[in-house]
Amino acid sequence: MTCVSRVGAGLLGVLLLVGSLAACSSDSKPAVCSSMDSLKSSVSSLGDVSVSQGALTELSDDLAQVKTDLAQVATDAKSQYGSDVSALQAAVSTLTASLTAAQSNLSAATIAAVGTAVTAVATAATTLQQAVEDTC
Known about the structure:
- By secondary structure, the chain is an all-alpha fold.
- The chain is 79% helix and 0% strand.
């Protein structure tokens, strides 16, 4: 599998997340529901990055928004979803490290690691959304 295919596969995982997060709405719901909607949108942006010149910078910018939205979810979810929030935070940290490595030393291996990390963020976000779903 080429590095473009690996990144593409990771981005596909993010796009699948968008559909699964759609169930959470904010009509007269707890604050965590609206913060999950924001997180859904920012995670979706990770999947909108096309593999081209400047993609790592765009992905890094989108990741910054994911971090902001995740911090709000963590605040709104309090300890109720603590383990799922922690898992997503760990996945985001791994993606951050992978992006930093790819920006410092662009190679097939570092790009593949970014694709894998994007997929892990999407998976962890889906798990968190499923946990929050009954509340929303």
